[in-house]
Design a protein that fits this description.
Layout: E1 3-6, H1 8-16, H2 22-35, E2 39-44, H3 52-55, H4 58-64, E3 74-80, E4 85-86, E5 89-90, H5 92-98, E6 109-114, H6 119-131, E7 135-140, H7 148-154, E8 164-168, H8 176-187, E9 192-196, H9 204-213, E10 218-221, H10 235-244, H11 253-270, H12 276-283, H13 288-295, H14 301-309, E11 330-336, E12 350-351, E13 354-355, H15 356-368, E14 373-377, H16 380-388, E15 392-395, H17 403-411, E16 418-422, H18 431-443, E17 448-454, E18 468-471, E19 477-481, E20 487-488, E21 491-492, E22 497-505, H19 507-514, H20 521-526, H21 530-535, E23 540-544, H22 556-564
Parallel strand pairs: 1-2, 1-10, 2-3, 3-6, 6-7, 7-8, 8-9, 9-10, 11-14, 11-16, 14-15, 17-23
Antiparallel strand pairs: 4-5, 12-13, 16-22, 17-22, 18-19, 18-22, 20-21
Helix pairs in contact: 2-11, 8-9, 12-13, 12-14, 15-18, 17-19
Length: 565
């Protein structure tokens, strides 16, 4: 008889720090129970710090469930053997702190996760847990790092008479033939066999079927595959298959309702799932938290792969091993278009005897060093001037729609994780603001970064040259316009903010931005580049700066800038 276990809260907690909305958990238990799922694992019982579902305190779980257990499903928790082994011995006091007697607990099953070198200690822990009245399931982790002999040694733990022996495809690199072989070895113990699969190679579902065909009777998954690293086989996939192909009395409809109500939003926030680098990690037995940590940073995919393949002893996660490599490569790219409609030749206009594009490059140099400063232009005369001053220059096509498109084209030739765009007509920018934008991009890697500042005394909210900013209370860009916004019924609003043209992107954001053939509708109407990001669905974080700079839009602006300088 097949037993289907869902561990969404336990494995998904690696993204949420084991904190979940109470209503969501209530709905989860209800809908999984209606679907016929046999066991619902609500999280860990652990002495290690973490959210409420890292602890699964009995009283807390009773309150969440309003003292109502599911009708058919059993509730389970997991413990990790290493959390209870101190100086080579089992610390019973730690177990007693988090696991009370079965009588009065909402849980009936304890899953004990172990590694091969913890077998003897696990036997001691397992006996102690069974003595408290719980059913015991034992999960062997890191199965693909073990020899056949070591796998055979693990089955000696069957002496505890557990409900099932599981093997976990911790690195997601098992293939169906290996699953069949391991299942056969486990079955020789005379105990039911279970399998927990990860999807690094896209084989999680196939491996579950191979396990079932080889005689495994326990399988588990998570909704939408939510789990550490790339994630797991999908519970809804297992339910649908068992219902329609194997004739089991599972029901997929309740699960689909729950997924649409809760899981879609979680996936949008945490974005787990297959990536090239998770596949690399799986094949090389690299702990999934390395990839999860690196992918949540600002590093591009190629940099991540380079770091992964050079990690020594990567089977256990140690963030200190990648801290140094995680420092970003930052480049400032200054788009400089000669054929400006308002001011032809503007980048070469001299301000107090020095070409404006060089003044801007010198500001960028103060922020990131000259080796990381690039000028992107379509004009050979600008190329010659920039090279004369010793700065790097990239000759781009003459068909770039905007300055940001020019930056995107230039970025293809630059090895950088963060690309900063500063306008070539902003000779009064503060280099400290550039560094501030870099820090914001590191803190908000999934946002485009832009700057805003109050209008100064020389500027009017009615001036069409100045883009005005409307942002949320947490400085998310809502809209930007050359019109006087925001406004009131009586007229213009108070304290209008203007755009300051320092931007931060990653390579993927620039690629998506420049992939359009024409300006997007609102971008074209407003003639403001950043609006395209909003229309393409990107989030934009606005950084407040003092706004004392003055852009050069027309020849008469040169005199203003010289006076201010």
């Amino acid at each position: 008889m097949i037993k289907l276990l869902d561990c969404t809260l336990r494995d998904g907690g690696y993204y949420t720090n084991w904190n979940f909305d109470t209503q969501m958990v209530q709905d989860l238990v209800t809908h999984l129970d209606l679907a016929g799922v046999d066991i619902i694992e609500l999280g860990y019982k652990s002495p290690v710090k973490g959210g409420k579902y890292r602890k699964c305190n009995d009283r807390f779980i009773w309150e969440v469930l309003e003292h109502k257990l599911p009708v058919n499903a059993e509730l389970a928790f997991m413990i990790d053997a290493k959390d209870f082994i101190k100086q080579g011995s089992v610390d019973y006091s730690l177990i007693d702190d988090v696991i009370h007697e079965r009588d009065g607990s909402p849980f009936s099953i304890c899953r004990l996760a172990i590694k091969h070198d913890e077998i003897e200690a696990a036997k001691t822990i397992g006996r102690y847990i069974k003595g408290k009245g719980y059913e015991l399931i034992i999960n062997l982790m890191g199965i693909t790092t073990l020899t056949d002999q070591q796998i055979q040694e693990f089955t000696s733990i069957a002496e505890l008479e557990p409900t099932a022996l599981y093997f976990a495809d911790s690195y997601g690199n098992l293939e169906p033939k290996q699953v069949e072989k391991i299942t056969s070895i486990f079955r020789e113990s005379g105990v039911d066999v279970g399998i927990h699969t990860h999807d690094n190679l896209g084989l999680a579902f196939a491996n579950c079927l191979a396990g079932l065909d080889a005689g495994a009777t326990y399988i588990d998954g998570t909704l939408l595959g939510m789990g550490r690293g790339v994630g797991n086989v999908k519970t809804e996939q297992l339910v649908t298959f068992l219902q329609h192909s194997r004739g089991y009395e599972y029901q997929s409809a309740p699960i689909q309702k729950f997924i649409y109500k809760w899981m879609k939003a979680l996936h949008s926030t945490y974005n787990w799932g297959f990536t090239h680098n998770y596949m690399i990690a799986g094949m090389k037995h690299i702990h999934p938290l390395y990839v999860q940590t690196l992918q949540s940073s600002f590093l591009n995919s190629n940099r991540i792969e380079d770091i992964l393949v050079n990690i020594e002893d990567s089977s256990r996660f140690d963030q200190s091993k990648i801290e140094e490599q995680m420092q970003p490569k930052v480049a400032v790219v200054i788009p400089a278009r000669y054929k400006s409609s308002r001011f032809p030749g503007k980048p070469l206009a001299k301000i107090k005897g020095k070409e404006m594009i060089i003044r801007v490059a010198e500001i960028a140099e103060q922020a990131v060093g000259s080796v990381n400063v690039y000028v992107a232009t379509e004009n050979e005369e600008i190329v010659d001037v920039v090279k004369k001053y010793g700065y790097k220059v990239i000759l781009t096509s003459d068909s770039c729609l905007t300055g940001t498109d020019r930056v995107a084209e230039a970025a293809l030739e630059i090895d950088a994780d963060i690309v900063i765009n500063i306008q070539g007509d902003e000779p009064m920018l503060d280099p400290n603001d550039i560094n501030k934008v870099i820090q914001y991009k590191m803190c908000y890697p999934n946002h485009v970064i832009n700057c805003m500042a109050p209008l100064n005394v020389r500027e009017s909210v009615e001036d069409k040259k100045i883009p005005k900013v409307v942002a949320s209370i947490d400085d998310e860009l809502l809209y930007m316009s050359r019109s006087a916004i925001p406004g009131t019924k009586a007229g213009n609003g108070s304290n209008p903010m203007k755009q300051v043209c320092i931007y931060a992107f990653n390579r993927e954001e620039l690629y998506k931005y420049s992939s359009v053939q024409n300006k997007t509708p609102l971008e074209a109407q407003e003639d403001i580049e950043i609006v395209r990001f909003l229309e393409l669905g990107h989030r934009v974080k606005m950084v407040k700066v003092d706004g004392s700079s003055h852009a050069v839009d027309y020849p008469e602006d040169i005199e203003v800038v010289e006076e201010l300088l």
